[in-house]
Specification:
This protein has helices spanning 7-11, 36-53, 80-95, and strands at 18-19, 27-32, 58-62, 65-70. With 99 residues, it is of the alpha+beta class. The longest helix is centred in the middle third of the chain and has 18 residues, at 36-53. The chain has a 4-stranded antiparallel beta sheet.
């Protein structure tokens, strides 16, 4: 099992992310893109990494908006898998012009 990280600790260095307001430890980020193509391209980029590292975000997409939630289900909270994925998402979001 992967070691859990406290949510507050996980958020250090991830200023665009917030603590999930739900009933489980998780971090979230909302992104807005220029259009659906940009949003879907971003999601495809993240999906390729997620499959490679076997760690998949919970997310939804409506037109140019993407909502992302990260948690490690088998650890019951946040782990380095989530913070690593969040950093990748931040980089991909910047490179694709997300707000």
């Amino acid at each position: 099992m992967t070691d859990r990280i406290d949510v507050a600790e996980a958020l250090q260095g991830l200023p665009a992310w917030r603590e999930h307001a739900g009933d489980r430890p998780a971090i979230t980020r909302s992104l807005v893109f220029a259009d659906f193509n940009a949003a879907f391209g971003f999601m495809t980029r993240v999906a390729l990494l997620a499959d490679k590292v076997d760690h998949h975000p919970e997310w939804s997409n409506v037109y140019n908006r993407v909502e992302i939630l990260l948690t490690t289900h088998d650890a019951g909270g946040i782990t380095a898998k989530d913070t690593d994925m969040a950093r990748f998402i931040d980089q991909a979001a910047t490179e694709t012009g997300a707000k």
